[in-house]
Structures
1.
Amino acid sequence: MKVLPNLYFYPWESMTENNCNTFVIKGKTNILIDPGHYHLLHELQRKMTGDGLSFDDIDLVLVTHPHPDHIEGIAYWNSMDTVVAIHKEAHEFIEKYRSFWEEATGKTMPHFNVDIFLKEGTLRAGGNTIQVIYTPGHAPGSVCFFWEESKVLFSGDVVFAQSFGRFDLPGADPVLLLQSLEKLVSLDVDVLAPGHGPIIQGKGAVKENFYIVLGLFQQTVMKSMQNNETTL
Ligand SMILES: [Zn+2]
């Protein structure tokens, strides 16, 4: 689904199986963000083909964080020229927890190669400028991508429409998550493109969503932390 002249959005809408949203920036360098589960790649491929896009045309794959429903699919590009980039802490985390996930799900996680370790700062690719923003809290090595030319924030599982990422998973931390949310609020965002659920378009709507989410965080997470309760 085309959202902007050079931005494609592939929402995951199945109610029976979890997977992430995927985004493609089309240009001199074709960029794919979060390929999702390996065993569900055929669904993404089918949708992209409908838009005249092919996996083999992807030059750069960016991953927001090391959860299997976002990262596994990068294995497809293992043997290709495509550059795969994730944060170093994310890569270390996924290798550390590989056996944990395999035991928990009963599935084998594919092995994959990483070409570049992302750092906070500016990434330039095919005439596009992408700010890599370090946003831990939901997962170690989590990053958000702010595409400056189109003012699109790819927020992974840090912030969604009307909610925020879980912080009860291994390596998660609610205090870091709050700091990450606060870091994103000041950005001048026209399109919020989260890892799950709908996108939000319009500067005002995005700002309003940030305030709703921060308010919700204060009301629930911070309150229970002050009361020394456990919130899941
Ligand atoms: Zn996640």
2.
Amino acid sequence: MYPGFAEQARADRDGKAIVEFEAQQAESREHAGIFRKAAHNFGLLTHIENHHAQQYTEALQALEGVKTSPKAASSDPATQKWICRQCSMIYDPTEGDPDSGIAPGTPFAAIPEDWHCPICGASKKTFVPYEEVVAA
Ligand SMILES: [Fe+2]
């Protein structure tokens, strides 16, 4: 709505209103960027919550006497997922971490050592290979 307001202000030759509406427009663009980043980070939380659901399912199955076993870690670095021990963020090499400049298809070992968890900021050393748990 601000571009239209600014256009009307220009038609009215109202300098103060033009400045105000253009400032509001710039602020709205900044806020949109912040919301896009937040939406992306909430998307990353999906993997974490799925991991937690898997852990609770495993605990429930153990209580019910169902045996579980860890799924063998992938031997293919191109598909091996890694998990942050601090927040449970899962790095998936097929997705990479584009916001941090890590292209899809980047194996974990190829990520620079100064990379950090996009959710909690933990160092790369905090990550361990992710092994999904399956019912035995
Ligand atoms: Fe993390």
